[in-house]
Specification:
The structure is a single chain. The protein has about 400 residues and is an alpha+beta fold. The chain folds into two domains: about 35-90 and about 295-410, no CATH class; about 105-280, no CATH class. It is about 45% helix and about 15% strand. The protein contains 13 helices and 14 strands. The protein has helices at about 50-65, 65-100, 120-125, 165, 170-175, 185-195, 255-265, 290-295, 305-320, 325-330, 335-365, 370-400, 405-410, and strands at about 20, 25-30, 105-110, 120, 130-135, 140-145, 155-160, 185, 200-205, 215-220, 235-240, 245, 245-250, 275-280. Strands 6-7-11-8-10-9 form a six-stranded mixed barrel. Strands 5-13-3-14 form a four-stranded antiparallel β-sheet. Helix 1 crosses helix 11 (about 335-365), helix 2 packs antiparallel against helix 9 and helix 9 packs parallel to helix 12. The radius of gyration is 39 Å and the shape is elongated. Mean pLDDT is about 75; it is low at about 1-10 and about 10-45.
Length: about 400
């Protein structure tokens, strides 16, 4: 007969007998198995290893394919819009700047009071100054008659080499002629002779009279209207800078206007007694119309905020809709660090990666249309987008602070 024992050390029981023991000897009072070292939550700490956090995030995304695809498409669109918007803004600012340049915002007129004249060689020498795009003046003006329209006289202007580039600022930009070479026909002349793309112009000297015989000359078509209306009906021929000009026209490079104006004032300062003055071609643009100000105030800088804000709002809403799932993680003892790892892994997969795909796709599609300034602005906005995306997990974690284990029981 076995002797009676007054006290006996409790035996470890299995889950089948009503109590559970983990591998490391810990007993869950609630009667459920608490994973130990071999469990997915790690040893007592409730932390996910990095690989398990990514695996759990992948499993959650695979369980909700509609949600995953919707968020990914929104992120792709956000990346594409962030990449494309600066290019459109810079293009519009460039168009406005070209219109200002065509209006003479960077040009100057050097004139002599009371009908005096300026040495043509001195005017032509301005082309060598730093910041000067072109400079020149008209030497002599005569008349010719095109054979296709003998009744319509055309002005034949001999000018220093840089005169045409000032009169038609698009010549240098388009590469039609250099800073000082060639023969340029005005817009109305090329339309009249059918030489919109340039070609050989046949003419006779002396206006409507053909006393000097037939001549031919190779002309380049002017790109658009001339700054002075009369030169649309003229042919400008570059000649050597000998003789005198009644006025010298100077075109400054973009961004060098003020410096060129100062140089011109000093250049002709000793001739102030002779009545030589420097005048701007047109009124300079105000600070609010300058390219630097327009770039700083461009609307596309807010596009990235709206695009990433939409991604953050959708993600925050969907995570709050999964309160029950997050509550289960809380109930299982999942700590903040492990939850943060899951949120970051989720964001990398459904937000950052699709956003990068949108940036890459839009960049490839517009690669040939982006200039240096557009690329710079695009790089700045894309960098802002990634910085804002880095804040999205923090926002989601703040929203999940309100989730408790009771949400798992409530099923929401």
């Amino acid at each position: 007969m076995r002797p009676r024992v007054l006290w006996e050390r409790p035996r470890r029981r299995s889950a089948k007998n009503g109590r559970a023991a983990s591998r490391d000897g810990a007993v869950n009072p609630a009667g459920r198995h608490r994973p130990g070292r071999g469990g997915s939550l790690g040893r007592d700490s409730g932390r996910f290893p990095a690989r398990l956090a990514i695996s759990e995030a992948l499993a959650n995304l695979a369980a909700s394919p509609v949600r995953t695809v919707c968020v990914a498409l929104i992120a792709v669109a956000a990346g594409a819009i962030t990449t494309l918007a600066p290019g459109f803004d810079v293009g519009m600012i460039g168009d406005a700047q070209r219109a200002q340049v065509a209006g003479g915002v960077n040009a100057f007129r050097v004139v002599v009071r009371d009908g005096g004249r300026i040495d043509a060689a001195r005017c032509d020498a301005l082309r060598s100054l730093r910041g000067v795009l072109a400079a020149g003046g008209a030497l002599h003006t005569g008349q010719i008659a095109a054979t296709v329209a003998p009744g319509r006289p055309v002005a034949l202007v001999k000018a220093t080499p840089g005169f045409a580039a000032v009169m038609w600022p698009g010549l240098v930009a388009s590469g039609t002629v250099g800073r000082g070479a060639g023969v340029v026909a005005g817009r109305r002349v090329t339309e009249m002779a059918g030489l919109e793309q340039g070609g050989v112009l046949e003419y006779t000297l002396g206006g409507t009279q053909a006393g000097a015989g037939l001549s031919r000359i190779e002309v380049a078509a002017a790109p658009g209207a001339a700054r002075v209306y009369e030169y649309d009906s003229a042919v400008v021929v570059a000649a050597g800078p000998t003789g005198w000009v009644t006025e010298c026209l100077v075109e400054a490079e973009p961004g060098a206007r003020d410096a060129v104006e100062l140089v011109l004032t000093r250049w002709f300062s000793q001739d102030a007694g002779a009545g030589i003055r420097v005048y701007p071609w047109s009124v300079p643009v105000s600070g609010e119309q300058s390219p630097d100000y327009l770039l700083h105030q461009r609307a596309s800088r807010w596009v990235v905020l709206g695009a990433v804000g939409l991604v953050a709002a959708v993600q925050g809403f969907l995570w709050l809709a999964r309160r029950g799932e997050t509550g289960i993680y809380r109930l299982l003892g999942l700590r903040g660090g492990s939850l943060a790892a899951m949120v970051v892994a989720d964001q990398m997969l459904v937000s950052v990666a699709p956003f990068s795909a949108g940036v890459l796709g839009a960049g490839i599609a517009r690669a040939g249309d982006l200039n240096g300034m557009a690329l710079t602005m695009t790089a700045i906005d894309v960098a802002r987008g990634y910085c804002l995306l880095a804040l999205v997990p923090l926002l989601i974690l703040l929203l999940l602070k309100t989730v408790s284990p009771l949400d798992a029981i409530r099923g929401r």
